[in-house]
Amino acid sequence: MTVIIGSLLLGMYSQLINEQEHQLDQHLDAEKTRYQQMALTLDRRSFATQVRSADPKVALIVWRNSYDLIGSLSMIPKDMPLLPEKREFPVFTGGPDKLHIISGGMVMTRYGPVLIATRVDQLGALIDKFSNAAITALMITLVLTLALGYLFSKAILRRLVQYNRLSEQIEKGQYSTRLPVSWRQDEFDMLAQQFNRVLDTLEQNLAAVRGVTDNIAHDLRTPLSHLRIGLEQLPDKPVDELPESCAIITEELDHCLATFDAMLSLTRIEEGQQALELQPLSLHQISQDLCEMAGVMAEFNGQSLELSLGEDHTVSGDKYLLFQALFNLVDNAIKYSGEGAKIVIAQHRNVISIADNGPGIPEGSRDKVFERLVRLDPSRHHKGTGLGLSMVKAILSRHNAKIALMDNQPGLKVQITF
Q1: What's the CA gap between 2 and 94, in Å, rounded?
Q2: Whether 298 and 236 share a structural domain
Q3: Which of 124, 309, 330, 378 is deepest in the core (most CB within 10 A)?
Q4: How would you write 87-155 as a 3-class SS string?
Q5: What's the pTM value of the predicted model, to 2 decimals?
Q6: pLDDT class for 273, splitting at 50, 70, 90?
Q7: Residue 282 and residue 258: Cα distance in Å, rounded?
């Protein structure tokens, strides 16, 4: 700001000087033309009279006739140039301002050379006043700019120091800490909001990790305890009971291994590490295969399984993974809807839905069931890894499909939209 204002003042100063010089040249040129015309039209005596009567406030005129000087000054400086060239020279007077600066030049007329000049010290005083005012304004601007810059930088540094202090708290494990957001909504507030969103996601992920850890401990504690008891009892078992006991231990081990295998598979699918064998798939055909595969299971549980087909739709997907995800949903409906329930697989265009009239899932728990190793309490008596719906969501996400859980009144309706 100081440089800009200084440049503007310098430009104004230069413009003022040029304008004053231009006006002075015009004034002297007009007087030169006037006296040259008078010398051509008047006789010597009349010309002398005009020179004597010249107003010194307009111009200082000096003419040397045959005997003496006539005009406003008592002398003509040596080496005065011819107008439009001009030169400044000092003049001493008897008034309060004893020294005046005069600028002018000589004009050749029929009656000889005439000095035409005018005062320029008043213009100099005006320029000096402007210079002093400009320097004062520049200094005030510089002081104000430095003061405002200091205050502005202190405000920025204060917020940065605060952000740094809060970041150190987060680094120490206080993940509930958030950066403050002011009413200004400036760039710092935008940064703070983005940072807070990152912290929210981080806190959610940490909570999910803790939840997964708790669920692993809960789900694997029982089979591992059974394994320990079974191994401790093996030496005391009769020989004829050893094969059966070993089979039970092997089953428990298979359950533990299945849980870890499912977790690894889920991670590979979510991270895109497992390549998809894409091919055109008919949703008609997939729905029919689902109904055929699950029909026996539903009949064994005393349930009815119906298929409703609408307009067919073709998607590009991995046949094995997509069938695995949809069958998992149908299997859940058979497991948890209860004996005598009615299950309907419906397909129309790009939507497949699986509905039952069982107890359903409370609305507040519908998002939780897609998390890893989450099993709602009523389902604890059913054997499983708690990763089925997480796997379903990951597979459908890789196929650009959306899954939604809705109330079937009564029961649950799962809707998949490709």
Answers
A1: 45
A2: no
A3: 330
A4: EEEEEECCCCCCEEEEEEEEEEECCEEEEEEEECHHHHHHHHHHHHHHHHHHHHHHHHHHHHHHHHHHH
A5: 0.48
A6: low
A7: 31
Amino acid residing at 340: G
- Gap between the Cα atoms of 167 and 191, Å rounded: 13
Q: How far apart are CA 400 and CA 137, in angstroms?
A: 67
Summarised one tens digit per residue, pLDDT across range 150-203 is 898 888 888 888 889 988 888 888 888 888 888 888 888 899 899 999 988 888
Cα separation, 326 vs 310, whole angstroms: 18
Q: Report the pLDDT value the prediction gives residue 316, as an integer from 0 to 100.
A: 92
Q: Using one digit for the tens of pLDDT, what is the confidence trace for 320-355?
A: 888 888 998 999 899 888 888 899 999 999 999 999
Length of the chain: 418
Q: How many angstroms separate the CA atoms of 404 and 417, rounded?
A: 9
Looking at 87, 103, 126, which one is the last position of a domain? 126
According to DSSP, residue 80 is labeled P
**Residue 109 in contact with residue 42, Cβ under 8 Å?**
no
Q: Which of 220, 248, 270 is the last residue of a domain?
A: 270
The pairing of strands 342-348 and 304-309 is: parallel
Taking the C-alpha atoms of residue 60 and residue 28, their distance in angstroms, rounded to an integer, is 10
- The backbone region for 364, taken as left when phi is positive above 0, alpha when psi lies in -120 to 50, beta otherwise, is alpha
Distance CA 71, CA 102 (A): 15
Burial class of residue 322 in the structure, from the number of CB atoms within 10 Å of its CB (0-12 exposed, 13-18 middle, 19+ buried): buried
Q: Say yes or no: 287 and 208 in one domain.
A: no
Query: Is the separation of the CB atoms in 333 and 303 below 8 Å?
Result: no
Range of the domain at 388: 278-417
Residue-by-residue DSSP string for 360-403: ---GGGTTGGGSTT---GGGTTS---S-HHHHHHHHHHHTT-EE
What is the arithmetic mean of pLDDT over 98-110? 85
Give the CA distances from residue 217 to residues 2, 307, 384, in Å, rounded to whole numbers and listed in that order. Answer: 69, 40, 14
| CATH at residue 283 | 3.30.565.10
Whether residue 378 is predicted with pLDDT greater than 50 in this model: the reply is no
